[in-house]
């Protein structure tokens, strides 16, 4: 029996404070056959939280495609694993740290980076790149500048110190994120396929070992906090935000990789959300064994910590391992050398239970089945989103040049140089392409091949039509990888939504997942890892507003030869500019409609997955054959914005040979999908290749000069550059 003498009585208020519904608590009583004590209640609360159990999304996540010949390990482990040839694997995942980053932006973002790094190196990979996907509210919001500065500093501060380059990402602004920003972090690592480590504990009697930093009281109830919406008292939740130490993380990476070079490890797990609780439960559950821990042996940095506090702490830079018999001294020597804590805190058992001892008493005795495999699973009511009506009264552009300047200066398209200059993108010496292009590219160390990686999502599309928006998020990631010449391989995701208890929001979740699934199947990009972040809404903004549905996508592809890599910058004057793909001038949900005409209306553009597949393959063939000098996918802002970005990147202007257009604004700023811009010095060959492949190709003009212009407009590059740089420069200096 467990010791309950010193524990407070479990009252309905305490049960509610731990996030249980009445039915859920009744199931706890049924699982235990008795009332839990506080330690047991706390453990059930975090393991059954939305953040850990995915109780509202698990049913629908099972519908996603997760297998393929390139997949070595799909969802269920710390990160996904794919085959990149030559006996090597890429290991990657994306995860959220939204709620902590709103409360304490520096530490929230920093520990988000630290956590995703651990997910990757836990599996035996050396991290080679970090990316991020950030969503902020209106720049006019009173806290937004503080949040942006803190988040960017936190990402840079942690990533730069730990020695992993931050090479890419995306940043958007919308008032829907005023009360709940999104901070999604992604890490990519490389490992040998015969040196991949998993989390399933085994071997009755094997030692359970704690390594890394000491346990403190920071982060307690972090997983529970991430499973509810913000209220007016969100500032009071600061104690649930973890504190990170990137220098300890760097030591932990090196110590783990050194031990992994031996054969001493049976299983290994990061202490992430829910800390020691989730790591021990997952290891035991995955291995079908039991676990017994001595809480007195847990390294602690604060005095008088209770078992409840130790089990729920989310202190950073900690790992849990199961070692082979007799290998403890060898492992301890490695971790002591790296000046890290090492402690044998328990053993694997055959009971199927989690048993915790503290101060000579058993303070927890729980069957593991109900904690993990039998966690709540809900089929929430959902109402499909009705797609908007077709756009009526499409506006005309009175001044193409003025519209272009407006778009290039708007927060969603403004240069992110202020952000990425704070990140060390070159550490490690293998970064071949960083922020500012379609995808980042990092050489696989010591080889001639490279990994391409990107993060993508267009939340306004997902809000207007979740299924089409989910499809487009995958399709744009596919385009970005193809645009640098990489073969798309697989996807990770971070599914950010509001409350799943709202049928309309649950409808957004179901719709986005359906679109994502269809696109992943059609484009052969299985989903191998991911994270779900729900309850992203805030009562503090006055209306209980939810974020836009934001299924952030992280995608990885492979360049077999890094010499065959495309970039977006114009290379020289006098080259032909072509558009691959037909544009019908779709302006529903476009930035042009919003920024230049003040309207957020209409359906998003349709995605033709067959077209995406064919166009992507064609672009990759052009890049591999060396027939194009620059490539850029057409996305936010349409063709003229994409062309301007290419001109600014290369410092070379362009002249468009435009036919007479009925609505030049819609034609130039429409956001039709499946399109790319390319430049070439061999127009005849490109035209012939397109004809043979049945690809729509449109000659747009020629590179050169110091302006971007066409019929009725001509804007100097310097003017465009100033407009593009102005937002962050002026905002941060004000």
- How many structural domains can be distinguished in the coordinates? 3
- Beta percentage is 15-25%
Distance between the termini: 63 Å
What's the CATH architecture of the largest domain? Answer: 2-Layer Sandwich
Look up the CATH topology of the largest domain: 60s Ribosomal Protein L30, Chain: A
| Number of helical regions | 25
Helicity level: 25-40%
CATH class of the largest domain: Alpha Beta
Number of strands: 28
The residue ranges in which pLDDT falls below 50 over 5 or more consecutive positions are 223-227, 233-238
Shape: globular
What can you see in these coordinates?
The chain is of the alpha+beta class and 734 residues long. It folds into 3 domains: 1-62 and 197-375, Phosphoribosyl-aminoimidazole Synthetase, Chain A, domain 2, CATH 3.90.650; 67-193 and 429-564, PurM-like, N-terminal domain (60s Ribosomal Protein L30, Chain: A); 566-734, PurM-like C-terminal domain (Phosphoribosyl-aminoimidazole Synthetase, Chain A, domain 2, Alpha-Beta Complex). The chain is 35% helix and 23% strand. The protein has 25 helices and 28 strands. A 7-stranded mixed sheet has the order 8-10-7-11-9-12-13. The chain has a 7-stranded mixed sheet with strand order 23-25-22-26-24-27-28, with helices on both faces. A 6-stranded mixed sheet has the order 1-2-3-6-4-5.
